[in-house]
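Q&A log
Question type: sequence-to-structure
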Amino acid sequence: MLFPTTAVALGLLPLALSHPVEKRQNALPPVNSATDESVLQLALYLEHLELSLYTGGYTNFTDAEYTAAGFPPGFRENVGVIADHEKTHSDTIATILTNAGKDPVPPCTYKFPYTDPVSFVDLANAITSVGIGAYLGGGALLTDDPTLLTAASSIVTVEARHDAYLRAGVGGSPFPTAFDTALTSVFAYNLAQMFIVSCPRQLPITILPKLTAVAPVPPPIPNPPTPAGTLLKFNFDPSTFFVKVDPNAPLYIGLVNMVTNVTFIETTSCGTGCVTAPVPKGAMGAAFAVLTTFNGGLNENQLTEYGALTAPAEVILS
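Response status: OK
Response body:
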């Protein structure tokens, strides 16, 4: 090594010894506000979900099954590594909350609709996109201590690498968009609900009426991307809306996607509780469709607060 030799030659060793290099402290960040806690509790809620998902993807299939499905050697082992990462994320967030005197939200009981390695990876892409979106949306609220934002950012970059690896494994682009899509806490929480069987404790976040994407289902990882103009079909139950809606009033899909925020698309009725809407030009990657009576003028926060008739439905467009 060159540095010690150079230091001695320059007569700097006594100075170096009198000013030892400071050791970086491995302290976990604090939780300084109710907002910090709410962001971390949702992050933990979603990390529990992902831990269960990836653990199942590792334990429910053999190496031979992954190979037969066309995945490269070592793919199953890396799914197990991802599960280990999710366990580390969960444990770290829980410890941060516990150190602050907060009660970490416990895991739920989950049910995931995959039947083989390919459908597992398709589902993992969709769920991981929700987790990434929640971190991006929550990060904007972590303004009390920069170390907490740094910790959250260091998780979301790893989540993105997980997603890229999985997508490449099924022949999809590992980076289908130039931007990921941020999600509000309400939207992220509602997207998780479709996989929840029961929970010992839910978070104090509103659960909206359900919107179901029925075309295409299950959501594949399209390659090439879904063309603009492709009709998306959604089902919903108008009797569950929180507000009264004129049955003859026009309905719109607010499509949350990348940094364009919300694109509003007029729908066409296909019967009671059924609408179609075309994919708008430029929409790519993971998009999140919300049924609304508004035809524009709302950002995602406003759509969440007073514009949404339903929870979002995720549509993988590329």
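Response note: The longest helix spans residues 34-59.
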